[in-house]
Design goal:
alpha+beta, six-stranded mixed sheet, 8 strands
Length: 244
């Protein structure tokens, strides 16, 4: 290339720059006309056989037959969560759920943990805005044992004072850590902006102030009001029959 009688030389970098600029320009011009990929063709979904029964006490039982493995998964769903928290005592539902497996009228927290470990199973509890739950996963030959344990945990929590205080402190410590987590702070602010002071706009696990106000009587009243058969669904999936 010449300019005023001089020959100018361009290195590879210059050529690359020109090519990149050309590609970028082409992409910019063509981008609005591009379309997203089309969805795949619909496929038939074959759901496993299941049965739904309602017991005399109102408890709804859903059984999904799944015999591929000798295991059974159970989930007790309660139609109550943080939305049912008492005014000024946000965190009741979350605290109650976390205490279900921390001691019953017949077993201590250690005995519950030992029993589920002995049969090689897993037991967990939790809550959300609109529901609370107890999960259990065991092998087929331990189904009866796990059903008894699940029933005991759901029906007979003791809400021992020392366990209440321990769970409160753990939750408050977690809240203090979450204050430094940008994702958590953004989520809390977003919920407040969208839902205001409706329970949906408040943290499910409460605040240090509301947790401090929760008493054992509050937990007992929440459990007595919501953990009743006609407010619960028991879902059982695995190597069982509906009769079992």
């Amino acid at each position: 290339m010449t300019s005023h009688g001089r020959i100018l030389s361009f290195g590879p970098w210059a050529l690359g720059f020109v090519l990149c600029a050309s590609v970028s320009s082409a992409q910019t011009l063509n981008w609005p006309s591009e379309r997203p990929p089309r969805p795949l063709a619909a496929r038939e979904v074959k759901f496993p056989p299941y049965e739904i029964r309602t017991l005399a006490n109102g408890l709804q039982v859903i059984v999904v037959l799944h015999h591929e493995q000798p295991a059974v998964s159970m989930r007790m769903l309660v139609r109550a969560g943080s939305v049912q928290d008492l005014p000024g005592k946000a965190g009741v539902a979350n605290l109650a759920a976390s205490l279900l497996d921390q001691g019953t009228t017949t077993k201590s927290a250690q005995q519950i943990a030992d029993q589920i470990d002995f049969i090689g199973g897993a037991l967990g509890t939790g809550s959300a805005s609109d529901l609370s739950f107890v999960n259990a996963v065991v092998m087929k030959d331990s189904f009866d044992v796990s059903m008894d344990l699940l029933a005991d945990v759901v029906r007979n929590p003791t809400f021992a004072t020392e366990e209440i205080e321990r769970q409160k402190q753990q939750t408050i410590s977690a809240l203090q850590v979450n204050r430094d987590d940008p994702n958590y702070v953004a989520s809390v602010v977003f919920d407040r902006l969208v839902y205001g002071f409706h329970p949906y706009g408040l943290p499910n696990n409460g605040t240090p102030e509301t947790l401090a106000a929760i008493t054992r009587a509050d937990l007992q009243a929440y459990h007595r009001r919501n953990f009743v058969p006609n407010n619960m669904i028991l879902a059982i999936v695995g190597d069982v029959t509906s009769e079992e």
